[in-house]
Amino acid sequence: MQDKVCNVLFLCTGNSCRSILSEATFNHLAPVGFKAISAGSQPAGQLHPRAVALLQSKGIATEGYYSKSWDDLPVTPDIVVTVCASAAGEACPAYLGPVLRTHWGVDDPGHVVGSEEEILAAFEQTYRIIRGRIDAFLALPLAELVNDRPGLKAELDKIGTILA
Hints:
Oligomer: single chain
Distance between the termini: 28 Å
Strand order of the largest sheet: 2-1-3-4
Shape: globular
Mean pLDDT: 91
Order of helices and strands: EHEHEEHHH
Low-confidence stretches: none
Number of strands: 4
Radius of gyration: 15 Å
């Protein structure tokens, strides 16, 4: 990670909401040397408009983000973070390849049915969880963990349990 960019792939099924929120938030916060990308195993083909509006409301740029397939990745990731909610019966895509994998499941706010208030609250909750996890990731002693893959995996797995 010292001389090259560490590419973090946020992966889910549709690549329209959670993985996009993760990609944009990570890129907004990450130091030089870290870059997020996102993709889906069955991309929706468009971003969820509420996800875009939420990012903009947080001051996070949304230009250049789009729903894309994991078949069309511009780079090979170093770390793959799945964000699907397997507890909701969602099939989580499995990225194959020599990468470090972790799971940070979060419910899809794009599937929430209810009042406008309830839907907005679901998007805010999803963002809070994602933001808390990304903050925890970026607070890790990454320079030390870069050569300790089992240690880094353990820390990333722990981060996946943070709920806000």
